[in-house]
Write a structure and sequence with these properties.
Blueprint: H1 8-32, H2 67-80, E1 130-140, E2 143-155, E3 159-168, E4 171-183, E5 186-195, E6 199-205, E7 210-213, E8 220-221, E9 227-228, H3 231-242, E10 252-258, E11 263-278, E12 281-290, E13 299-305, E14 311-318, E15 324-334
Parallel strand pairs: 9-10
Antiparallel strand pairs: 1-2, 1-15, 2-3, 3-4, 4-5, 5-6, 6-7, 7-8, 10-11, 11-12, 12-13, 13-14, 14-15
Length: about 325
């Protein structure tokens, strides 16, 4: 018996159908591909991986930025990030610190650059015009001699004149005069004269910087703030009146002081205040003393009364031979 087989017409028809299907598939794929155009987007690579591994998608490599662009981007991100707020500290009540405990000293910082030193300034207070009267006690060659004296002080705010006249029995009258200008530095004498039996004078030549004497004595260099033996009494009072707190016991004041034969530095020491019983009444005054420095120096003791515009209310001059002259205030005429 002959085995059964598929009929040939049916087999041929099946073969033709399969060929037609392949041709249709190839024709569709060719229509979707165009030469010269690359596919864009990520390229997916599929590999056989074991287990439940998800296939990874590989991205195209990122373009590297220049260094300055990358730095700016990092700085921008850093500045955009909010800064962490400082953690608040609880306040310490004042009662928590015992009164006897001092706070710790602050750490010293670097010293600051020193500021330029300010120019030194001196304050003055010139008293108004007045006439001071004195009772005089003198010792002359062992004799006690009474007398009278008068100090006339006048100024108009720019120039001044001072005149001291002393008269006593057995003694020739003595008159001293000082005239000059009033400046921001106080009194600036131009001429000083001293007359007893004859007159001698000293001239302050500020244009040449000299003190010139009417005698045959050589001229002396003129120092800043120089005074004469009469103007120095008013100048010292104007200094103390200008800044009383500055002058305490032990303070010394040095001024070039000219007579009619020489100009030397007189140094006055402030000794303190005293209560004086004077012919004009009891008052308190500051005592200044110029002690002798050389063999024939004169000792000068001066009392200035703060309650009377620092006027000289007592003046005692002691000569090297022991003679002395003491002027004590008795009255004041204003104007």
């Amino acid at each position: 018996m002959k085995p059964a087989g598929r009929p040939w017409p049916a087999l041929a028809a099946l073969t033709l159908a399969v060929l037609a299907l392949h041709v249709a598939l190839l024709h569709g794929a060719a229509g979707s591909w165009q030469p010269g155009v690359r596919a864009t987007g990520p390229v997916m690579q599929v590999r056989a991986l074991p287990g439940n591994v998800i296939p990874e998608t590989k991205q195209a490599p990122a373009r590297e930025l220049p260094a300055h662009v990358a730095t700016r981007s990092v700085a921008k991100e850093a500045s955009a990030a909010p800064a962490a707020a400082p953690r608040p500290q609880p306040p310490v009540p004042s009662e928590a610190v015992p009164a006897s405990v001092q706070p710790a000293a602050e750490p010293e910082s670097a010293p600051a650059a020193p500021a330029p030193a300010a120019a030194a300034t001196t304050a003055f207070s010139i008293p108004g015009s007045q006439r001071l009267r004195y009772e005089v006690q003198a010792q002359y060659r062992g004799l006690s001699v009474p007398g009278q004296a008068e100090l006339l002080w006048r100024h108009d705010g720019s120039s001044y004149e001072a005149r001291l006249e002393i008269s006593a029995p057995l003694l020739p009258p003595r008159i001293q005069r000082s005239a000059g200008r009033i400046t921001p530095e106080g009194l600036a004498p131009l001429r000083f004269s001293d007359r007893s039996r004859s007159e001698e004078a000293a001239h302050f030549e500020r244009d040449t910087g000299q003190v010139v004497f009417s005698t045959t004595r050589p001229a002396a260099p003129l120092q800043p703030g120089a005074q004469d033996r009469l103007s120095v009494l008013v100048q010292l009072g104007a200094l103390l009146a200008g800044d009383p707190a500055r002058f305490t016991p032990g303070t010394t004041l040095s001024l070039q002081t000219a007579g009619t034969r020489e100009a030397e530095v007189w140094t006055f020491a402030l000794e303190g205040d005293e209560e004086l019983a004077l012919p004009g009444g009891t008052l308190r005054a500051l005592k200044l003393t110029r002690s002798p420095r050389k063999e024939f120096d004169q000792k000068v003791e001066l009392w200035l009364a703060p309650g009377r515009d620092y006027a000289p209310v007592r003046l005692r001059l002691t000569q090297p031979n022991g003679d002395w002259l003491d002027l004590q205030w008795s009255a004041t005429d204003r104007g």
